[in-house]
Structure formats: structure tokens, C-alpha cells
Amino acid sequence: MLFSQLINELKKGDAGLVDYEISNDPDVSVAASLEKVITNQISFLDKDSPLNLRNCIKSTQASILLLPSNDLEIIEIARNSNFAWASLKEPKIGFAETLNILYPPDLVVEGIHKTAVIANGVQIGFGVSIGPNVYIGNNSQIGNETIIHAGVVIYQKVKIGNKNVIHANSVIHSETVLKDECVINSNAVIGSEGFGFVSTPKGWKKMPQIGHVILENKVEIGSCTTVDRPSVGQTVIGEDTKIDNLVQIGHGASIGKGCAMAAQVGLAGGVEIGNSVILAGQVGVTNKVKVGDGVIASSKCGIHTDIEPGNVVSGFPAISNKLWLRCSATFKKLPDLVKAIRELERKSSR
Amino acid sequence: MLFSQLINELKKGDAGLVDYEISNDPDVSVAASLEKVITNQISFLDKDSPLNLRNCIKSTQASILLLPSNDLEIIEIARNSNFAWASLKEPKIGFAETLNILYPPDLVVEGIHKTAVIANGVQIGFGVSIGPNVYIGNNSQIGNETIIHAGVVIYQKVKIGNKNVIHANSVIHSETVLKDECVINSNAVIGSEGFGFVSTPKGWKKMPQIGHVILENKVEIGSCTTVDRPSVGQTVIGEDTKIDNLVQIGHGASIGKGCAMAAQVGLAGGVEIGNSVILAGQVGVTNKVKVGDGVIASSKCGIHTDIEPGNVVSGFPAISNKLWLRCSATFKKLPDLVKAIRELERKSSR
Amino acid sequence: MLFSQLINELKKGDAGLVDYEISNDPDVSVAASLEKVITNQISFLDKDSPLNLRNCIKSTQASILLLPSNDLEIIEIARNSNFAWASLKEPKIGFAETLNILYPPDLVVEGIHKTAVIANGVQIGFGVSIGPNVYIGNNSQIGNETIIHAGVVIYQKVKIGNKNVIHANSVIHSETVLKDECVINSNAVIGSEGFGFVSTPKGWKKMPQIGHVILENKVEIGSCTTVDRPSVGQTVIGEDTKIDNLVQIGHGASIGKGCAMAAQVGLAGGVEIGNSVILAGQVGVTNKVKVGDGVIASSKCGIHTDIEPGNVVSGFPAISNKLWLRCSATFKKLPDLVKAIRELERKSSR
């Protein structure tokens, strides 16, 4: 694609094009990271990038660069260089738009593969693609333009809306609801029965898990992530919430809109997560705990008690991130502190 | 179902029916949580519930409630209300029994789906259901009334007993033994080769993993949970032990009866877990460590050394829960302690 | 197999046979652990084994034992016993070689199962085995003697080399490259899209993940482990690196040769791991962090900052293992330290 064509696309996009220099209007078809970009490729520098990345600009071989419009030093370097460039308010968004143009998603053949098994009473919309060896159980519904990859198993009475993508070998249990434009990655499990057992003198008695899971619009679920159904009621994941790989969402959890949860996060049963909450990798939340809107929890954090909206928390048990940083720094000095105390005790007993 | 019919069932059950008031004998078909229950639905209050749940009783719209017989204040409220109610020694067990009546498990059609692939020498009992696209390897055995859902892969020489349920796309490796009434949830992997490599000057040499996995009666395995086979001998999970999603059971682990392990627990190779052990979410146990009967480990606990029976442990490395609570509370005050020590040093050096 | 035959094989192997005593040349077909070995079985004692294992030698019923040649006390016991034995420089390697002889891998029937679905333009080498219900997408390549078990899904343009083994129901996404002799365990996912979203006023914008994953020779990937593709460039796992179950490898991670990562490790996006790095269970590494050659991180360690080559680290945030052991030991005494400080304050204020 010619750079001049890309500029036209960026003008229509959300990245906020501010300025550009077309130079010799290079023709690129490959995108790369700033550290690895070579001639005939395009890359970008994000706002507030660290020094080592900013320094790459001085010696880059890139043919095109997307740059942060507020970084005057970088723009000055660009003006004195040979590469073509555009400055944008949001260069990372511009790069995402560029990738979508350079690498359009592979066309998936519409239609139902002959090896797919469709049970009774299944409703299938138009433009649907159902891959090889898929199984869809009784009375499930598949909305328009939804893509179901090979080996997926959908139990009965599942309701799947429009424009969802369900990757290979994932499993969706009965009565689960997917609204529109969700992505389920490979080997994920949605709607499996929650972990509910009651202790009795005869051993564990299973609490039947007859509730179901609802994924609102634009939810994405990572590979090998599990979302459990509750005994009664619903497990709900709010619109535009993104969940990474190997995450556990316990039965009856309620998650708001626009959250992001990194890999290996674990939410126990009945937790309530607000909107725009960000949980970093390996965070755990204890059952029935409430996490307020906009909370950020750093990696490996263990949240045992309710967290008020807007807090940034760390550690286990979770405390304010600022306090945790100071406490952790002190933790390494514990042996020295013991020495200091012993010394004081010696002096005071004299 | 009419409440009077439910009362008859509860009399036969294990929940210990003490008293009841049929009122207008409501007819319900939906169960809900106490916070969300509405007219024409049934819910329950468990023993020792927190105040916010107990308060729900005063204004509930439920038509039927199962209540704790030892909670006289609640029973008194019930007597003065319009809803029908039953008081039980174990209301949670009563609710589980109610769910089983209101929502009987979906009938699974018996028989072998025409797309299932059954290899040579496979023995299949009566009343077995084998779903679409299942594969069963040579010389495996499937006991009576076992249900195998779509996409399951069973390698060769696997022995599966009676009344097991194996959910979609899970994988059972060769020579694994499942006794009776086990549940394997979707995308679980049982009997994969243990992580055994010996360091040599030429690189890692693989230790062959030719042992196998045994699941005793009534074991349940969560979605995307992995149970490894050992190099020699067995990995054993004892009767009535319940394991949640995304758990790792290392090669040669030995787990007793009636345990419960929450999501994302990891047991390294060769650990020995006693009976009735409870491990909360994200707990880790180091290889070959022994955990005694009845031990409870709180979430994210890291168990590096043997734990004596009956202990409640927390933290990393694991210590007594009571001590850990005190130490964690002090951890947040570390910066203050440093200040106090510096102040003492100033005074003493005067 | 007669012991004399095994001795001939061990002479050709890598375990360094030093001495042996054939006794009555026992014929064994079963291997077992030293704690459980009985008559007509073979077992081994590794170098530097703990006392309880070494003591097993005195009363063992084993018919054959492989022993560490540098352990003169053990060899002395062997000389005065009835069992046949061999002493080796590396008895564990000898045991691995023995297992390979006693339990040769099951022969997999070559050929493509009739239920496998092979799309257009797929190249398949000789000696390949493709199991039931496998799907291979357009233009993928499968090298010689590769074994693909039942239910595996391979997307398009995947390049798989020679002598790979891909276990049941795992998923390999488009453009992934597997060199030779890799093992992918069941339900693993290789090449799924990385977790890349840009925050915008309209919600999360997805960063397209159009890079791909490369597994060099002899890489092994555990069950339910996920390896993500990056937005641009590659996620690379180096030769002979072994990865256990339920591990997350983030997009754009670069892992060196000969590493080992235990179960439930999580690497965030863009981390750079050197050669011969060992990460124990549940370790987490923050995005873009560099971990030098030969680093060892103990279980549950949280690595937030670059680690220099050769370090042994522990804790969260990770510090030197030696320091961490001392700090952890002090952590349990925090309440006592507070008391000591309060006492000092009382004295000093008098």
C-alpha cells in the first residue's frame, strides 16, 4: 500500500492525524516493531515511550513511521530524516488501523461443513460459518455472520448472537448467552458447572448448578479460560470486557463493562467487579468480594476484602499500591532491622 | 411443583426437616438466590448467614423459603409472614435437593453417535451414551450408564467404570482408570505425561512417563484441569475428592479422600495430600511435600514443607493462619516501624 | 528382559556404566520407584538421594537396582546383597534408558484416518499419522513421521516439521512454525492472538495480532498451555526448552534454549528469557522484563525487573534467594519485633 493511501485511511480513523510528510510515497506491505523494522516496512512510536525506543528513531531503516504529535523532539528528528512519517495524537491506534488494512482477516468460507453435526431445532442465521467436526446441541441459536471454527462443541439451548467468533475446540455449555461481536478463543470453556459442594456427614453433596452465563456485546475470552455457571441466577460479563488466557471466572461472578483481566487471574464465586477494572496477571479475588469501578490491581495481588472505586492496589493481602511499594522495599531490609533492634536492646540493657 | 409435594421429598432427604407452614401451598418452578428471589419462586437462608442476607427475610417476595431450624429469630419472622416455609437442620442441603427436583438433568440419548469413532477391542457397557466426534482408542473399556459428550478423546487401554460423565473435548490418556460416578469437565486432560526431564551435557533427556492415573469413585475434575501420569507407579485421586478448574496435579501425586481444591491450585510431582484437605484458590504445593489430613490452606498459600494434620495455614512460605494474619497486619506498618527504630537510634546516640 | 541384555544396552547409552553384578541374571519387565519396588522389578537410586531413599536399599525386594557409582557405602551394601545391580555415573539417565527399553512407545498406525478433514493445498510428508476428527487448514505443511492425534485442529499456513507429536484436541493457529521433534500435549493452544487492546474513548480497540509463533527443535509444550502470537514479529521458544502444563506465554515473548518452566508459570508480553533458565511453578514475569542466562526462580516468584544472568531469585518482588530466605524467616517474627520496639520505646521515654 502506498503511504498516500494509508494517510487517506488514517484521516477517516480514530488516531487523530496531525501532520505528515509523504517523502517519496513509499509502498509498504509489512509492519514491524520499532526495534526490528527495516526498509520497506512501517512501524510506530507510542506516546511516552522509554528512551531506548525513542533513540531508535535516530537510526531507523523504516520507510514509514507513525509518530506521537506531542513529541516535538521526535517530530524534529523526523523532519530531518529520509523516512516518510505521520504524526498522530494516538499513534498506537493509528498502528492498529494500519495493521487492519495491511493484514485483512482471512476470508472464512461461509456455510456449514459437511462433517459438522447439527442437532434438532437449531436456528442458524445468514452468513454463518460452521467448521469441520463442530457439534451444536438441540434448540441452540446461532446469529448472523457468526464464525464457529473446527471442533467447537455447543451444548443445547445456547443463544449466540451476531458476528461472534468462536475458535477451535472451545466448549459452550447449555443455556449460555453470547450477545454480539464476542470472541471466544481456542479451548475456552463457557458455562461449565460451578464448583459448589456442601459438606455432609456422608461426604460432599453437589449443589446443582442450573444458572447460566451471559456474555454481553464485545466480550473477549482467552484460550483455556473457564467461565462457570452458578447454582441459580447468572454469571455475567459486561460489554467490552476483555479476558486473557487461563483465567478462572467463578460461578455467579458479576463483571462490569470495559474491564481487562490478564492471564491466570482467578475470580472466586460471587465476586462483583465494577466497570473499567484492570486486573494484572495472576491476581486472585476471594469469593463474594466487591471491587469498585476503575480499580487497578497489580500482578499477583490477592484481594480478600472489598476495594473502593478508583483504588490502585498491590500485594497479598491487597493494600494501596503506594504503601505496598514502600513495605516491599522495607521487607528486603528485615534482617538489618532485626540487627538494629538487637543493637538497641544491648545498649538499653547496659 | 406444589410446596406440599416438595415437603414430601424433603422428608425423604438428608436436610433434616423440622417444621413447615404450607400457607396457600404455592406452586413454584423457579429457584433463585435470596437477594433476587421474587413471587412464585423458592429460595433459602443458610445457617450462620451474614446480617445482610438475614435481613432479606423481612421484605422478601419469595413464595417459599427454606430456613435454618436453629435460627429462632428468623423462624419467628417466618411465622408472621405470608410466604410458605420449611425449617431444616441443613437448609443448604435442602436447597440442593430442591434444585435436583425442579431441574432434573437433561435426558441424554443413549447410544453411540454415528460420527463417534470406536477403535478395536473396545468394551462398552449398557446404557452408555457416546456423543458426536468422540474417539475411543484400542482396548479401552466404558462401564454402564457412562455419558461421554461430544469431541472427547480417549486413548487406548483406558478403564472407565459405571455412571461417569465426561464433558466435551476433554482428553483421557492411555491406561487411565476412572472408577464409578466421576465427573470430568470440559477440556480437562487426565493422564498426560508428567514433566520429567534429566539434565545432561547434551540437553534435557526425557524420563519416560509410563505410570498411569487412577481416579477413585466420585472424583470430580474441573474444566481445563490437568492430571499427569508419573514415570512409574500411579497418580491417585481418592474417593469423593473434588477438584476445580485450571488445577495442575503433578505426576505421582497422591491425594486422599474427600478433599476439595479450588481453581488454579498447583500440586508439584510426588506430593502426598491426606484426607479431607481443603486448598483454596491458587495454592501451590512443592514437590514431594506431605500435607496431613484435614489441613486447610488459604488462597495463594505456598506450601514448601510438610504440614501436620489439622493445621490451618496461610502465606508463602506457609505458616499458621493465625500467625500469618498478625504478620500480614504488621507488614503494612513496616515503614512506621523503620521510623520508630530510627527515632530510637537517634535518642540512644545522644 | 534379562539383566545381561539391559547391561549391553546401558553400555551403549549415556549413563556411564561403571560396574555391575549380574547375580542370577534376573528377567524383569516392570520398573518401579525405590519405595514400592518388589521382586522381579527394577528400580534405581539417584545420586545425592535423601536418607530415607538410601535406607530403602538395605531392605529392598528389588531384583535389579541401578546405583550411583560414587556412593561407596551403597555399593558396599549392594555387594553384600542378593539383588543384581549396576553402578552408573548417572543412574537416573540409566533408569530413563531402561524405561525406554521396557516400555517402547505404542506403535501408532501410519496414515490419515478417514474422518480427518484435510483442506486444500496441504502438504503431508511420509510416515505421517493423522488421527480421527483432525482438521488441517489450507496450505499447511506436515513433515515426515509427525504424529497428530485425534481431534487436533491446525489452522491454515502452519508449518510443522519432522517427528513432531501433537496430542489430542490441541489447537495450532495460522502461520505457526514447529521445527522438528517437538511435543505438544493435549488441549494446548499455540499461536492464539495476543492480549492487545488500546484504551480509547469509545472503549477497547483491538490491536491486530498478525505475528506468529516459532517453536524451535525439541520444544515440549504442556497440556492446556497457551502460547500467544504477537501483533508484529514473532513469539519464539528456543531449542530444547520444556514447558509444563497450564503455562501462559505472552505475545512476543522470546525464550532461549534449554529452559524449563513448571506448571502455571505466566510470562507477560514481550519478556526476554535467556538460555537454560529455570522457572518453578506459578512464577510470573512482568511484560518486557529480561531474565538472563541460567537464572533460577523459585516457585511463586514474581519478577518485575530485569534479572542478571546466573542469579537465583525468590519472592515477590523477586530478590536474591539467599536474602529472601532470611527475610521470610524474619517475617514470621514481625509481631515479636513490634513488641521489642514498643518495649524499647517504653524504656527510652522513661
Q: What's the gyration radius of chain A in Å?
A: 26 Å
Mean pLDDT of chain A: 96
What ranges of chain A have pLDDT less than 50 throughout 5 or more consecutive residues?
none
Q: Biggest protein-protein interface?
A: A-C, 60 and 65 residues
Helical amount of chain A = 10-25%
> What is the name of the CATH topology of the largest domain in chain A?
UDP N-Acetylglucosamine Acyltransferase, domain 1
The oligomerization state is: homotrimer
Number of domains of chain A: 2
Q: Which superfamily, in CATH terms, is the homologous superfamily of the largest domain in chain A?
A: Hexapeptide repeat proteins
What is the end-to-end distance of chain A? Answer: 83 Å
* Coarse structural class of chain A: alpha/beta
Q: Outline of chain A, from the CA principal axes?
A: flat
Give the helix tally of chain A.
6
Largest sheet of chain A: 12 strands, mixed
| Range of strand content of chain A | 25-35%
By DSSP, the count of extended strands of chain A is 38
CATH class call of the largest domain in chain A: Mainly Beta
Shape-level CATH architecture of the largest domain in chain A: 3 Solenoid
Major sheet of chain A: order of its strands? 6-9-12-15-18-23-26-29-32-35-37-38
